[in-house]
Amino acid sequence: MTVSVQTVGGGAPARTLSLPWIITASSVGTLVEWYDFYIYGVLAVFFAQHFFPPGNPGLAFLASLAVFWFGFIMRPFGAVLFGYLGDRIGRKFTFMLTLVLMGLATFLVGLLPTYATLGLAAPIVLLIIRAIQGLALGGEYGGAATYIAEHAPDGKRGLYTSWIQTTATMGIVGALLVILLCRLSLGDAAFTDWGWRIPFLLSAILVVLSGYLRLKLEESPLFARLKEQGGVSKNPTVESFLGGGRNWRLILIALFGATAPEGVVWYTGQFYALFYMTTVLKIPLVTVYVVLMVALTVGSIFFVFFGWLSDHIGRRNIMTLGFALAVVTYWPVFTWLGTFKDNPVMLTILVFYLVILVTMVYGPIAAFLVELFPARIRYSSLSLPYHIGNGWFGGGVPAIGTALALSTGVALSALFYPMAIAAIGVVVSFAFIREPTHKIRIWEEVGGGAPPLVPDQP
Q1: Can you tell me the distance from the alpha carbon of 231 to that of 240, in angstroms, rounded to the nearest whole number?
Q2: In 51-156, which residue ranges form alpha helices assigned H by DSSP?
């Protein structure tokens, strides 16, 4: 579909762009940032060997996961910092800045000397780089989701924003594919010694390409109109977080009724499944990578399906069903992963089911969050609950799950944490989220009418 991007004040169109092209240019950068963020998680076992004191592999692996989680802990702080810039200066400028920061930090990981060279300075520097990554990603998602949503016409916001929801999963697929190709071409010994650095160094090329695409984008038309009308918040941080109880109520509802349960479902279905199969079930890495890549790639189309469906039946019910299914099915599914650990086909089917749950809770969430907050503080307000939910609650799944399993001696006890958070999501969403959220018309904030993206007739 081709759309005309008209000037805010009227007159001739400034340029003609394809809406799929706008979504692609926005999403590619987000995919690269997810790739950058997650190659650390996929390679956590190698960081345990290279950046932490030798002698206790279990403790080193737990420390490696803790550094992985630290990046998630920093994400809400990035949400506040870059949310302020996004609501004051603009969406485009901010997600260009986060892309550059993420790419630079990831490239530096590929150059970082190990514990054998730097001693305790190695994990400290790694922690600092991880903090920069977390800050950058904290500003990225809110900007990209808001940017696409503010281009989309009312009634199709779930469909259009669902494409950006695929980027996190495809970022993992990209990370797994690059790592697998490096392992197979270099061999296990060379990859373990130095080849693990290549996926980090390659990110520089990806950042340059995605940055080139993003430079061609204009500012969000809704934000441009808001700015023209003088409606931009003077201090979006204060207005979002210190401006009264109503916005905090919305933030807490978004956190406990949507983003925290969505976060634990996401990381359990994709990342903890990876750790469980490799470290608990001891399935060969190549088999696990292939199983995940197939399940994630095939399952990713359901992000778009559930985004589209949420435009018709609402966001809440789809997400809440995903939370409920996680609560009642995680234990048997992870049990079956052990039962069928020598059967790659069954492993793929089981992981595919976990991915379907991820798509149910994640596909509609960008549209849901955009509709919850006003345009003048949207970037700031939606970014904070999203990154606390995904960063603190979701990002803690591997480390908290591993700690629970080690302390109890029961591997499946790691599931108690995500199941509990998902159960809270079911209760809070039914109690406090009212449908139909998908009927909200965000363009009424700036004078109503359709966005200045007018679809041509086929």
Answers
A1: 15
A2: 57-88, 91-111, 115-118, 121-149
- CA 458 to chain CA centroid, nearest Å: 34
* Residue 406 and residue 200 in contact, taking contact as beta carbons nearer than 8 Å: no
Query: What contacts 358, CB < 8 A, 6 or more positions away?
Result: 169, 265, 266, 269, 270, 299, 322
In a domain, 445, yes or no: no
- For every one of its 458 residues, what pLDDT tens digit does the chain have, with 9 covering 90 and above? 444 444 343 333 344 456 777 788 778 777 877 787 778 878 888 889 999 998 888 888 888 888 888 888 898 898 888 888 888 888 778 878 888 888 888 899 999 999 999 999 999 999 999 899 889 888 877 777 888 888 888 788 899 999 888 888 888 888 889 998 999 999 989 999 999 999 999 988 888 888 888 888 777 777 888 888 888 888 888 888 876 677 889 899 999 999 999 999 999 998 889 889 998 999 998 899 999 999 999 999 999 999 999 999 999 999 999 999 999 999 999 999 999 999 999 999 999 999 999 999 999 999 999 888 887 888 888 888 988 998 889 988 888 888 898 899 999 999 999 999 999 999 999 999 877 666 777 777 777 655 544 443 33
pTM for the full model? 0.82
Does a structural domain hold residue 390?
A: yes
- Provide the Cα torsion 26, 31, 34, 38; round to 10°: -170
Residue 7 belongs to some domain of the structure = no
Residue 407's CATH number: 1.20.1250.20
- Asked if 143 contacts 82 with a C-beta cutoff of 8 angstroms, the reply is yes
Give me the domain span that covers residue 380.
17-438
- Give me the number of domains the chain comprises: 1
In a domain, 450, yes or no: no
The one-character DSSP state at 220 is P
